[in-house]
Write a structure and sequence with these properties.
The chain has about 400 residues and is α/β, with parallel strands linked by helices. It has 12 helices and 15 strands. About 35% of the residues lie in helices and about 15% in strands. The longest helix has 21 residues. The structure holds ligand 7TS.
């Protein structure tokens, strides 16, 4: 059991993350966890132990080592199911991450089920990975619509509702924005989508690392997450799908293990989730994700969420001391998760990130793969600080100090 007390200068969990004690990294201020998080030793060791002791392909061999590998892989699936409140592990498909999950949905639902004239409703705050796969259906005559935001970067529910009609077959929204930090009211959005008989998809890439997720309570038909943003390795993620829907879907990829029978005249698909896992999966990645879930669960996602809100509130207050900084998104930390994007007046985001980098503060600047949002905000780019449980007040103070250096350079 790990305890995460109230926000202090240094996170009580920082010592769990080897990155921060490696030679040359002791003074690293890592504020780019929305791009990818650091990994605790608990996760690194679980992957290492699996590769050393248990490595074999899964669902293939019947010798004990392969059976053990399969058992461990399926155990990780069960952990992922419990973590997001799925009814059964068979609702959990292991894929590379949110991007792959959303593409699988666009391929499986879009290509097979949508027709010319059908519409997909998303929002203007989406990451490109929840826009482009749907736009790729334009060759089938499917159009993508975008619900707008209000002046505080919250979804405009009136606009959202006005854009759903009988042609809207899919509604797909980010749970939390990777730029604005806005946490969307997915329960309400799901209810509205279902009232119109639309399928409701939630991109949880930025929420799963910070907020307790319950796919049942929030009316999600599908939910996507990326392991690497929640303390697990890269290349592993989850597509949750409601059983009834998964079992009626065509696979996106063909190959080994996704079939029940293959003959010259055709093939039959395996049951979900295997139908959607063609080829050898990222086995050690799944073990790593299972370990990350164990680690986060030992802290308690309620505590992780509370801590995240405390960091956001502290960082917002510190950044707002400087009138030169424009912050995007909700002003209230309670409505946010994980990230704060901002611009220093008169300074390009790339210059800010470069100088901060030299000062030992890692943040990201740019359009954050959310160009429609940048267009909507009327800015070419933004700088973004993003947080995890290993950050403390000291990291925020270092950010504010380094922004002072940027200001001096561009005075
Ligand atoms: N959806 C959201 C909301 C995201 O923030 C990201 C990645 C993705 C989907 C795609 O995740 P992937 O793991 O498949 O790449 N966001 C970011 C980011 O904000 N900075 O780097 C990656």
């Amino acid at each position: 059991m790990r305890t995460l007390d109230r926000l202090g200068d240094i996170s009580p969990l920082k010592g769990d993350f080897p990155m921060f004690s490696e030679k040359g990294r002791e003074s690293l201020v890592y504020l780019d966890s929305a791009a990818t998080s650091q990994k605790p030793a608990f996760v690194i060791n679980a992957v290492d132990e699996f590769e050393r002791r248990c490595n074999a392909n899964v669902h293939r061999g019947i010798y004990p080592l392969s059976e053990e590998a399969t058992e461990r892989y399926e155990e990780a699936r069960g952990k992922a199911a419990r973590f997001i409140g799925a009814r059964s592990p068979s609702e959990i498909v292991f894929l590379r991450g949110s991007t792959e999950a959303l593409n699988v949905l666009a391929l499986s639902l879009g290509t097979w089920k949508l027709k010319r004239g059908d519409e997909v409703l998303t929002t203007v705050m989406e990451h490109h990975s929840n826009i482009v796969p749907w736009q790729m259906l334009s060759r089938k005559g499917v159009t993508v619509k975008f619900a707008d935001i209000d002046e505080w970067g919250r979804i405009d529910m009136g606009d959202f509702e006005s854009k759903i009609n009988e042609r809207t077959k899919i509604v797909t929204v980010a749970h939390a924005s990777n730029v604005l930090g806005t946490v969307n009211p997915i329960r309400e959005m799901g209810r509205i989508a279902h009232e119109h008989s639309s399928i409701f998809i939630v991109d949880g890439a930025q929420s799963a690392p910070h907020i307790p997720v319950d796919v049942k309570a929030s009316e999600c038909d599908f939910f996507a997450l990326s392991g690497h943003k929640m303390l697990a390795p890269t290349g592993i993620g989850v597509l949750y799908g409601r059983s009834e829907l998964l079992s009626g879907m065509e696979p996106a990829f063909g190959g080994g293990e996704m079939i029940s029978e293959v003959h010259q005249h055709g093939s039959k698909w395996a049951e979900p989730p295997y139908r959607f896992e063609a080829g050898t999966p990222n086995i050690s990645g799944a073990i790593g994700l299972g370990a990350a879930i164990d680690y986060l669960s030992s802290i308690g996602m309620d505590n992780v969420e509370r801590y995240d809100r405390e960091i956001i509130a502290y960082a917002m207050n510190r950044l707002m001391e400087n009138e030169d900084i424009e912050i995007y998104g909700p002003k209230d930390a309670e409505e946010r998760s994980g990230v704060i994007s901002f611009n220093l007046k008169g300074v390009h985001g790339h210059d800010t990130a470069e100088i901060l980098g030299r000062e030992g503060v890692a943040i990201r600047s740019g359009h954050h793969c959310a160009q429609p949002l940048m267009d909507r905000l009327g800015i070419p780019s933004a700088s973004r600080a993003s947080f995890q449980i290993y950050n403390g007040k000291q990291d925020i103070d270092a950010l504010v100090r380094a922004l002072g250096v940027v200001r001096k350079v561009f005075a």
